[in-house]
Specification:
This protein is an alpha+beta fold. The protein has a single domain, classed as Clavaminate synthase-like (Double-stranded beta-helix, 4-Layer Sandwich), CATH 3.60.130.10. The strands form five sheets. It has a seven-stranded mixed beta sheet with strand order 1-2-3-15-5-17-4, with helices on one face. A three-stranded antiparallel beta sheet has the order 14-6-16. A hairpin with a 6-residue loop joins strand 11 and strand 12. The two termini are about 25 Å apart. Belongs to the TfdA dioxygenase family.
Length: about 290
């Protein structure tokens, strides 16, 4: 842990990852605090901040202090014309995330990280769970690690967002990585990703967007993916957050997956998310 991180008041949620950050007002944080938060994001992977007063403007300003912002989503428009960077996840408009996933892995350059704040919460339920992809990889048996280190997987956003792009956006999405998104071609990423800042390896497949593994049979692909998914989401690899109004969560998209519980019936849940521009995932061979 670096000196910058030790300057923060961190309450660990687990022995390996996840922390509540105390004593930081994200709307007025100093440059030193922002740098410490950025370092802690890599080290602890998911951070939570209570009793914050951010609105859409403040969330965007915070994101720009931490990194370069992307559009709200490759396909889904921003919350309004003034905030094209803000993605509204509204349960009344199919804004659910009740499948394990890592954000936007169906693009060649997925986000570095995400910043999510609560806007409207149900009376109960709607918790979010995060899985530590690096801890999950490191707790695989050596033989399985050797098997998956050299594999490549296909990620496809068409299943989730193809209809939205065609029907609700008229075939034209947002600008992502310098190009306007007009189609969601499948992309290939390493099954095991090497974190560009730490060199640690983590599982980089997810049920939300990964369709299959390249170069193996359909049966083998499903068996390997099911093994990795089951291992990734073991309880000892997970932290769970119970939301309150004023909460902000921040996570490293390169080393985590997450799942939002859809257990609140017809009550409304609205979350606003921004994402930070990332890099092209590299596997063990390229790293």
């Amino acid at each position: 842990m670096t000196a910058a991180i030790t300057a923060l008041q961190l309450e660990p949620l687990g022995p390996h990852f996840g922390s509540i950050v105390h004593g930081v007002d994200l709307a007025t944080a100093t440059d030193e605090q922002v740098a410490a938060v950025r370092a802690a994001l890599v080290d602890r992977k998911v951070l939570f901040f209570r009793d914050q007063s951010l609105d859409d403007d403040g969330q965007v300003t915070l994101g720009r202090r931490i990194g370069e912002l992307t559009a709200s989503h490759p396909v889904v428009g921003g919350v309004d014309a003034a905030h094209p960077e803000v993605y509204a996840l509204d349960s009344t408009d199919n804004g659910f995330a009740d499948v394990w996933h890592t954000d936007v892995t169906f693009m060649r350059r997925p986000p570095l990280g995400s910043i999510l704040r609560s806007v409207t919460l149900p009376p109960s339920g709607g918790d979010t769970n995060w899985a530590d992809a690096q801890l999950a990889y490191e707790s695989l048996s050596p033989g399985v690690r050797q098997l998956v280190d050299g594999l490549t997987a296909v990620h496809d956003g068409t299943r989730e967002f193809g209809y939205y792009l065609a029907q609700r956006r008229g075939g034209q999405g947002n600008e992502w990585d310098g190009e306007i998104v007009t189609r969601l071609d499948p992309v290939e990423h390493p099954v095991i990703r090497v974190h560009p800042e730490t060199g640690r390896r983590g599982i980089f497949v997810n049920p939300g967007f990964t369709s299959h593994i390249v170069g193996v049979s359909e049966f083998e692909s499903r068996a390997i993916l099911d093994l990795l998914y089951a291992h990734l989401t073991k309880p000892e690899h997970i932290v769970r957050h119970r939301w309150r109004l004023g909460d902000v969560a921040m996570w490293d998209n390169r080393s985590t997956a997450h799942y939002a519980n859809r257990d609140y019936g017809t009550d409304r849940r609205v979350m606003h998310r921004i994402t930070l521009r990332g890099d092209i995932p590299a596997g063990p061979a390229r790293a």
